Amino acid sequence: MSSVAQKRGFGATLWDWLTTVDHKKIGILYLLGGGFFFIVGGIEAMIIRLQLLTPNNDLVSAGIFNQMITMHGTTMIFLAAMPILIGFMNAIMPLQIGARDVAFPFLNSLGFWMFMFGGIFLNLSWFFGQVPDAGWTSYASLALVSEGHGVDFYAIGLQIAGGGTLMGGINFLVTIINMRAPGMTYMRMPLFTWTTFVASAMILFAFPPLTVGLFLLTFERMFGGNFFDHTMGGNTIIWEHIFWIFGHPEVYILILPAFGIFSEIFSIFSRKRLFGYSAMVFATVLIGFLGFMVWAHHMFTVGLGPTANAIFSVATMAIAIPTGVKIFNWLLTMWGGSIKITTPMLWALGFIPTFVMGGVTGVMLGTAPLDYQLHDTYFVVAHFHYVIVGGTVFGILAGLHLYWPKMFGTLLNEMLGKVTFWFFFIGFHLTFLIQHWLGFWGMPRRVFTYMDGQGWNSSNLISTVGALFMAIGITVLVYNIIVTSVKNVRVANDPWGDGRTLEWAIESPPLYYNFAQTPLVRGLDTVYIEKMEGNASGLTPAEPVQDIHMPNGSFIPFMMSLGLFIAGFGAMYRAEESWGLPVLIFGLLWTFIAMAMRSLKDDLGYYVKKDEILRDMKRKGGQK
Amino acid sequence: MDLNKKFTPETWPDHPERATLEAKNKFVGFWLFLGGETILFATLFATYLALKNKGPSGFEFTTQGLFELPLVFVMTLLLLTSSLTSVYAMYHLRNYDFKKMQLWLVITAFLGLGFLALEMYEFVHYVKLGFTYDNSAFSSAFYTLVGTHGFHVAVGLVWITLLIYRNSKRGLNLYNATKFYTFSLYWHFIDVVWVFIFTVVYLMGVIG
Amino acid sequence: MMKGLKKWRLFSLLAALTVFLAGCGQEELSTLLPAGQVGKDQFKLLMLSSGIMLFVIVAVMVIYLIAIVRFRRSKLGEDHIPEQVEGSHTLELVWTVIPVLLVLLLAVPTVYYTYKFSNVTAMDVVDEEGNAENLVVDVTAKLYWWEFEYPNLGIVTAQELVVPTDEKVYFNLIAADVKHSFWIPAIGGKLDTNVENVNKFYLTFDKESKDLKDGVFYGKCAELCGPSHALMDFKVKTLPRAEFDKWVTAMKATGEETTDVAAAGQGEELFQQSCIGCHATSAVGESGAVGPNLASFGDRNRIAGFMDHDQESLVEWLSDTQEHKPGNLMPSFGEQLSDEELNAIAEYLMSLSVEK
Amino acid sequence: MSDIQVYKKSPAQFNLDQRRARKSMRGQVMMFSLMIFMTIMSFSMVMAYQADVAGFSKFLIIPSLLLFAAVQVGLQLYYFMHMSEEGHGVPQMFMYTGVVLSFAVVLTFVTIVWW
Ligand code: HEA
Ligand code: HEA
Ligand code: CUA
Ligand SMILES: [Cu+2]
Question: Which ligand 3 atom lies nearest to the CA of residue C226?
Answer without folding.
Answer: 2
